[in-house]
């Protein structure tokens, strides 16, 4: 776990959303790809609503959401103090109001336990370390390697979401057998949106959403392709227009109706 603050030489400053955000990230350690941006784009939040990001890291998904939907009340929970400090710094430098709590999702700080939110979002660690190799960097390992069961992430999210509020996770597709029973135990109106690398490939990631007190039937949506074509055939990026708009123009990525 990273406890001491990052020094400047340890950081890079990376553009997100076509330069709308400038995010400081560790050069070595957990670095965000497009996953948190896709998660943020999928949240149907409206001005005035509140959002809690569990495991917020350096704040990327929360700040991406705030850049797309002005007027949100944003909060994050991060177990690693150095990353929590980085999220606070990134919020200030990007002109966003983000309240970051430092603590464990299984033992949240008291003030956070007293609150509920319209949306709870999370990008939990993807890898079950009983079947994979840990990363060498402690910060990266904490972001990628599961130390807390997915069921605990879902339980924590369900406790913090308000009645009729939504919980949305992004996760590897092969973790669906773990996620669905955990969500069914606490949430209703479950929806799954597969994220497909490109034509002819199986989904590697999924977005999954549930509503507290929801009663709608389970929905498995048609997948969204991230890249154009069946293979990478040219230099540079080849995202589909819809995904490019998310990454460059802060567009939304709504679940299909």
From TrEMBL:
SUPFAM superfamilies noted in UniProt: S-adenosyl-L-methionine-dependent methyltransferases (SSF53335)
Keyword entries, A-Z: Methyltransferase, S-adenosyl-L-methionine, Transferase
Cited Gene3D superfamilies: Vaccinia Virus protein VP39
GO biological process, one term: methylation
A GO molecular-function annotation: N-methyltransferase activity
Listed EC numbers: 2.1.1.223
Domain Methyltransferase small: 38-131
Protein's UniProt name: tRNA1(Val) (Adenine(37)-N6)-methyltransferase
Stored InterPro entries: DNA_methylase_N6_adenine_CS, SAM-dependent_MTases_sf, Small_mtfrase_dom, tRNA_Adenine-N(6)_MTase
N-terminal signal peptide: none
Record bears the keyword Cell inner membrane: no
């Amino acid at each position: 776990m990273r406890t001491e603050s990052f020094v400047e030489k340890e950081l890079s400053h990376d553009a997100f959303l076509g330069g709308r955000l400038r995010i400081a990230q560790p050069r070595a350690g957990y670095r965000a790809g497009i996953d948190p941006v896709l998660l943020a784009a999928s949240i149907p939040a409206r001005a005035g609503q509140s959002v809690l990001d569990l495991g917020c890291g350096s704040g990327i998904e929360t700040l991406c959401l705030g850049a797309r939907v002005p007027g949100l009340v944003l909060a994050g929970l991060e177990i690693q103090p150095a990353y929590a400090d980085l999220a606070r710094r990134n919020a200030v430098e990007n002109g966003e109001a983000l309240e970051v709590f430092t603590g464990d999702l299984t033992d949240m700080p008291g003030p956070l336990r007293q609150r509920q939110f319209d949306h709870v979002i999370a990008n939990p660690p993807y890898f079950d370390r009983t079947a994979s190799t840990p990363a060498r960097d402690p910060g990266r390992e904490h972001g990628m390697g599961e130390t807390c069961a997915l069921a605990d992430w879902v339980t924590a999210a369900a406790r913090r979401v308000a009645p009729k509020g939504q919980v949305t996770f992004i996760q590897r597709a092969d973790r669906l057998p773990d996620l669905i029973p955990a969500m069914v135990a606490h949430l209703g109106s479950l929806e799954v949106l597969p994220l497909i690398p490109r034509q002819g490939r199986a989904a590697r990631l999924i977005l999954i959403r549930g509503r507290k007190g929801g009663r709608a039937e389970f929905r498995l949506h048609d997948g969204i392709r991230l890249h154009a074509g069946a293979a990478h055939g040219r230099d540079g990026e080849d995202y589909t227009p819809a995904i490019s708009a998310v990454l460059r123009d802060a567009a939304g990525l709504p679940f299909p109706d």
